[in-house]
């Protein structure tokens, strides 16, 4: 009887001890009963400075995308063709631009004379061009002007005078018809021009009713050749 009670008591004590000291089935420990499923990671809290920068960048990006495209640069103004009435003259020295011209019309010359022309500096041998359509009225070699050309325009109102030429264009002759831009001679220093400064001496004369090539009222070529003024 005692033995039976002792066995029963030992069984109770063993069960109680096993229950008390055994592993927790669902606990966070590392025993054999530990849950093998890994815990879901918790994201770290965002940096406040990063959030502020993102909030500023978003409106800026939206504003940039919404900004209108830069308008294209305006096209350069087209070059105007000379008027049909022939009042626009071509620059008479090849390669010279209007910006290179100098107004020497009223400059003093020897013996109390006034220049009444403009000098267009260029290397010797540079082609000289007819400023307009017309006729070669006179080829003349003078003490002051050297080799010269007197050209009448078709209407007979104006004479264009080219002086200090090195030589004439091949085949150039009096009463010959020439066209605007045609080579009629070459820049030189004949006459009283300095060999150290070859140039074209260019004049415009208004012809009288007698149409004399050596006689006429002088007009300033400078504003005409620059396109600032038309022939009257």
Give a description of the structure.
- The structure is a single chain.
- With 232 residues, the chain is α+β, with helices and mostly antiparallel strands.
- The protein has a domain at 92-117 and 144-211: Distorted Sandwich (Glucose Permease (Domain IIA)).
- The chain contains three helices and nine strands; from the N terminus they run H-H-E-E-E-E-E-E-E-E-E-H.
- Strands 1, 2, 3, 4, 5, 6, 7, 8 and 9 form a nine-stranded antiparallel β-sheet that branches.
- A hairpin with a 3-residue loop joins strand 3 (134-142) and strand 4 (146-152).
- The N and C termini lie far apart (156 Å).
State the gist of this model.
With 232 residues, this protein is α+β, with helices and mostly antiparallel strands. Helix content is 19%, strand content 22%. The chain has helices spanning 2-21, 48-66, 221-225; strands at 118-121, 127-129, 134-142, 146-152, 158-168, 177-178, 183-187, 199-206, 217-219.
What topology emerges from the helices and strands here?
Elements (H helix, E strand, L loop, with lengths): L1 H20 L26 H19 L51 E4 L5 E3 L4 E9 L3 E7 L5 E11 L8 E2 L4 E5 L11 E8 L10 E3 L1 H5 L7
Antiparallel strand pairs: 1-8, 2-7, 3-4, 3-6, 4-5, 5-7, 5-8, 8-9
Helix content: 10-25%
How many individual helices?
A: 3
From the spread of the alpha carbons, the general shape counts as rod-shaped
CATH architecture designation of the domain at 92-117 and 144-211: Distorted Sandwich
Q: Quote the distance from N terminus to C terminus.
A: 156 Å
List the secondary-structure elements in sequence, H or E.
Answer: HHEEEEEEEEEH
CATH topology of the domain at 92-117 and 144-211: Glucose Permease (Domain IIA)
Q: C-alpha Rg, in Å?
A: 52 Å
Strand content: 15-25%
Number of strands: 9
> What would CATH call the class of the domain at 92-117 and 144-211?
Mainly Beta
The helix-and-strand class reads alpha+beta
- In CATH, the homologous superfamily of the domain at 92-117 and 144-211 goes by the name Glucose Permease (Domain IIA)
Kindly state the mean pLDDT as a whole number?
77
Characterize the largest beta sheet: strand count, sense, and whether it forms a barrel: 9 strands, antiparallel
Low-confidence stretches: 23-42, 57-68, 73-86
- Oligomer state of the chains in this structure: single chain
């Amino acid at each position: 009887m005692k033995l039976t009670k002792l066995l029963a008591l030992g069984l109770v004590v063993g069960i109680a001890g096993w229950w008390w000291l055994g592993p927790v089935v669902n606990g966070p420990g590392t025993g054999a009963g530990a849950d093998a499923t890994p815990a879901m990671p918790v994201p770290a809290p965002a940096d406040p400075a990063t959030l502020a920068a993102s909030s500023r960048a978003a409106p800026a990006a939206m504003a940039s995308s919404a900004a209108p495209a830069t308008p294209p640069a305006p096209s350069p103004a087209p070059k105007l063709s000379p008027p049909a009435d022939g009042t626009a003259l071509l620059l008479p020295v090849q390669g010279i631009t209007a910006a290179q011209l100098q107004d020497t019309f009223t400059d003093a010359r020897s013996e109390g004379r006034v220049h009444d022309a403009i000098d267009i500096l260029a290397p010797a041998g540079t082609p000289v061009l007819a400023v307009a359509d017309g006729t070669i009225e006179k080829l003349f070699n003078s003490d002051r002007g050297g080799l010269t050309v007197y050209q009448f325009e078709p209407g007979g109102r104006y004479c264009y005078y080219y002086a200090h030429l090195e030589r004439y264009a091949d085949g150039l002759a009096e009463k010959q018809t020439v066209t605007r831009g045609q080579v009629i001679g070459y820049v030189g220093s004949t006459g009283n021009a300095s060999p150290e400064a070859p140039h074209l001496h260019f004049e415009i004369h208004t012809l009288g009713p007698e149409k004399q090539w050596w006689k006429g009222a002088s007009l300033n070529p400078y504003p005409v050749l620059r396109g600032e003024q038309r022939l009257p």
